[in-house]
Structure formats: structure tokens, C-alpha cells
Specification:
By secondary structure, the protein is mainly beta. It has one domain. It is built from one helix and seven strands; from the N terminus they run E-E-H-E-E-E-E-E. A five-stranded antiparallel β-sheet has the order 1-2-3-4-5, with no helix packed on it. Strands 6-7 form a two-stranded antiparallel sheet. Strand 4 and strand 5 form a beta hairpin.
Length: 106
């Protein structure tokens, strides 16, 4: 849900561990972890529940080529509550391939 660039988001997962190999060790002695799973490690829940609630602000600048986002997130795995602060900057360096007014690709 968002308005005026301010947003609130919530992700709730209830189910089994989606990342059973997260803490497994490979032949080289390295832990698989984020190299194997691209999503949030909390989806490897052992309690069967994961919830993430985020509150933040997002704004585009310079003809939507630069995006700034700041977010505060609360997470729980059913045992403890964790927090995360995120600031991100995105830059679109590619020209627009789709012209909204002409409704066609250049």
C-alpha cells in the first residue's frame, strides 16, 4: 500500500523450511548460504512462520531515471523480532525502449 511515496508492505509466510541446505557445507568447506538461495534467509524458518513488515519512502527523480528508497523493516521468525534499515539508489542508464505517448518500441 502506498501514497505520496510513503509505503507499508507486509510478507507473511507460513509453512516448512524453504532453504534446507542454507547452512550445509560443500566439498570445498564453504557454507552454501546466499550462494545457493537468493531470497531472504528467514524463509529457512524452523518454526514454520516468517513475517516481514516494512515502512518506507520511495521517490523517482530526473525523468524516472534515478530511484531513491529508504525502508525500515521488522522481521520475525516466530521466536525473535529483528529490524533492518535499508537505503537504496537505483539508476536506469538505458534509454527508454517504449514510448508511452506513441505506444510503440523505438
Amino acid at each position: 500500500m502506498s501514497r505520496w511515496g510513503v509505503f507499508i508492505s507486509n510478507n507473511l509466510y507460513v509453512g516448512k523450511n524453504l532453504q534446507p541446505l542454507y547452512h550445509s557445507v560443500g566439498k570445498e568447506g564453504t557454507i552454501y548460504g546466499a550462494d545457493l538461495y537468493a531470497s531472504d534467509p528467514f524463509y529457512g524458518t524452523t518454526t514454520g512462520v516468517y513475517n516481514r513488515t516494512g515502512i518506507g519512502y520511495e521517490r523517482n527523480f530526473w525523468q524516472e531515471r534515478i530511484k531513491v528508497k529508504a525502508e525500515f523493516a521488522l522481521k520475525t521468525d516466530g521466536k525473535k523480532v529483528y529490524n533492518q534499515q535499508i537505503i537504496s539508489l537505483g539508476v536506469n542508464i538505458a534509454p527508454k525502449l517504449y514510448d508511452k505517448t506513441m505506444k510503440k518500441t523505438k
